[in-house]
Amino acid sequence: MYPAYGLYLYGEGLYAQETQVLKLTGAPVLFLPGNAGSYKQARSLGSVALRKAENVDGGLHLNMFTVDFNEELVALYGGSLFRQTHFLHESIKAILRLYKHLKTPPQSVVLVGHSMGGVVARALFTLPRFNARLVSLILTQASPHQAPVLALDPYLLDFYSTVRHRWVNQANKLTNVTVLSVGGGYRDYQVRSGLTSLPCPSEDSNKFSLVVTAVPRTWVSTDHLSIVWCKELVLATVRTFFDLIDLETRQFTENQERKVAVLNHHFIRNPARFVKESPETSSSVQDIQETGSEVNTLRLTYSTPKEGPVKNFVFALSSRRKAYSHFYCRSNNLETSSWVFGCTRKNGSSCVNTEDLSKGTELLPPYKVLVLSLHDLSAFSHLVVSASNINGKQFTVECEWQRHQSDSQTLTLSVPSVFSFGFTSSEVTVNSSGLLHHIRLQHFHQAYQAFRINVISQCKALKDRLPSVYRMRVPWFREDSLTTVSVPAVTEISGMLHTSRPDNSSGVLLELHTAPNCQYKVSVRSSLPKVLGQVLRFCGPTLPVYTAVTLLLACRGQLSSILKRSRTVDMSQAAAAGLQPHKINLPVYVLHVLLCCSWFQEVWSSLWLPPMDTIPPSSPDGMFREGMAPAEEWPHLLSPFLYVLGAAVAFWGSSLLRLLIRLLSLLLAPLHRSSVSGDGGTMGPRVQIFISLCLTVVGGVSCGALAIAASSLLHLYRVLRLQMTERYLSHMLNLAPQKHKLTENGTVREESSSKSKPGLLSEWALQEVRDNLELHLCLSALFTLPVMLSAPSLLHWIGNLRYASQLDPDPCWPHTVPLVIANLLLVNCTTLKLSNSKLLPLASCLPLPLAVTMVTFSSLHLYRITHFLSAALIPLALCCLL
């Protein structure tokens, strides 16, 4: 049923030999590759898991399976996504059958999906016969859960719609499934991290979405492929798997609370202790607190000697409750996981009722940090910080009392406008000598905003200090980014967002873990290059629409020129004239405004018109919605800019096409006989009918994209012959004056005058050939777009040709016949035929309304571009007949 796919078990060394008979005893994990991904990518997880198993007592280990999806381009061609989903279902059942010999066989399989593999993993639950208990945990890496990056065919959108309906509208049936989605950050140029957010209800505590920069012990951004083998992320994933294994059953736990706790530990907030580690007993703490040193100052800084005694510091809470609200403490190289305790002391006696408070510790790159609220410590009279140098490693402990958050510890800084273009900046100076400061960046909540945040640190005295950590916290999405620097230093932080604020939550918070007795100056300046980068990151997938609009209006300009003066204009001039934002963006914006009115929406719905496509919203919960909130108006303001970028692509693309035509014509010229006729590459009516029928049949029985590409090549050959004829005629005209000069002093003057007539004929013929060449260059640029948009289908068909001769389903088949017929009819098209056609006025009027309609309905449905191009090319092809 699935000859192109395969299921493999990863192994190496002795383990590979032991598992050849497939008598498995480990916990099953299944890796799913993504778009054009190899099943061999599972080696990153499998190899580390084997090394980890060697150091684990009790023989606990993982069985790493991987699926071979034949490296299909499923991110661009959605016809095989459901086939992959069904094969995944069969693979899971086959894996579980391998454990039937065990007394307690596993009841489920953990799935790890990269890119589109993560989307396929979630699609399992859309199958009618799938048992949801077979999968209880899914980890996805750089998977576009919100929407496809490029919607090049309707099957891709149908697949996403089905998955979204299952996970959003029927979320109550999937509460037992834990899903963790990790985005790659700003280095992932293929799938922006905003798309990796899981579309699920916010109250579902079993679904996690975050960016890899916020993962403890990782803190770095990855590109789309390296997220699979990023060592820090692989270690976090493998540690998660081993912590999820139940020691009794030796399989993954089914306890939902346990799964959530382990994922929180390794991916959300790492308290710098093992998951299974129990707090130190109160008795051991009481023994060491009798020798503790009382700390009466507001700040403690202590560095241990290489070999020091047991050292503990005691802080009295009673005298600090009124003036202070928090206790902040940090330590580097302190391997003891339990290091801060609360206790009760009476009349100077030793501590009683001791409790470990270290479970709230958070791990940062250079040290671990603990912030305690005094409001939660009403049951204790003292805090004890253990700074014992047990292992002989030097470390530093810094603690301080902090005032209320509304006081000097929190500052507010309004970010400058994006339209300041970096000429103005907002600044604030942190003069306090504290260890932790917060700066609220007001009005920073939109994805199109981008800033350069400079932090300049200056210290009074030169001495060794712990590094400073600058963290940018985003309240509505786990996309925190951390920067570690030594002090004093000048540091630049990129202030950008993966998602816009979906509601009225608080703004971005800049958290500064600073060195004592140092001054920090923070300045925020808008960055135009970063703003443009954000625009391309969020709106770049719409550029093909504006490129097609520009070429369509360029064709309109050529037809209008033929209609008025029976001549064409230069292709570069026509492409430049295709930039007409006032005729495109203004009507589209008017439609958007009208759709905000209820009466117009009713009229729109009564006409059975599809929803208006808008530039994809940037908030996690805004994908696929028909309307847009006022905060999402900014994409409409960017439409003219996107139009300029699309026109630039069209202009330089057409220039590159002209250059390639010239080079190919030079290479093919020796294979063709020189001719002054402009009919090279044309076909007779019978030949056109025969080729049309052949290509239609080929497209039906194999792949529609193949027929479209073949017909475009026939038209390209016509352009090459016109280029050869134009070069030959130009060469003849350059030689004609020399012949006339040789005969000028001859005895028979009539002969020289008669020889001038062919020269006049050649100039007229050259002009006609050039007009036809400019016309066909414009048409060839238009034909290139359907070929490029259907290329993924063609590549998928070629990759699976040894398994199936027909592409099923074929998204190109609906417009294969009209495009093939239009291509072949336009091969014989000339400016003379068009100027004499009665349909030319109609054909020249269609591109503009079609361009407006294309922008209205194709931003989220790129495959519709081909439909609109077909609607413009068919009337033009009929002009060659009527």
Automatic annotation (TrEMBL):
Q: Which residues form the GPI inositol-deacylase transmembrane domain?
A: 543-880
Q: What is its main location?
A: endoplasmic reticulum
**InterPro entries linked:** AB_hydrolase_fold, PGAP1-ab_dom-like, PGAP1/BST1, PGAP1_TMD
Q: Does the keyword DNA repair apply?
A: no
Q: Which family does it belong to?
A: Belongs to the GPI inositol-deacylase family.
| Segments crossing the lipid bilayer | 641-669, 689-717
Superkingdom as given in the UniProt entry: Eukaryota
Lipid bilayer topology: Multi-pass membrane protein
Start and end of every GPI inositol-deacylase PGAP1-like alpha/beta domain?
Answer: 24-243
Q: Name one Pfam family in it.
A: PGAP1_TMD
Instruction: Name a GO CC annotation attached to this entry.
Output: endoplasmic reticulum membrane
As for subcellular location, the record says:
Endoplasmic reticulum membrane
Which SUPFAM superfamilies does the record cross-reference, listed alphabetically? alpha/beta-Hydrolases
A GO biological-process term: protein transport
Record-level Gene Ontology MF annotations: hydrolase activity, acting on ester bonds
Q: What does this protein do?
A: GPI inositol-deacylase that catalyzes the remove of the acyl chain linked to the 2-OH position of inositol ring from the GPI-anchored protein (GPI-AP) in the endoplasmic reticulum. Initiates the post-attachment remodeling phase of GPI-AP biogenesis and participates in endoplasmic reticulum (ER)-to-Golgi transport of GPI-anchored protein.
Q: Which UniProt keywords apply?
A: Endoplasmic reticulum, Glycoprotein, Hydrolase, Membrane, Protein transport, Transmembrane, Transmembrane helix, Transport
Q: Per the UniProt record, which EC number(s) apply here?
A: 3.1.-.-
Record organism: Oryzias latipes
Under what name is this protein listed? GPI inositol-deacylase
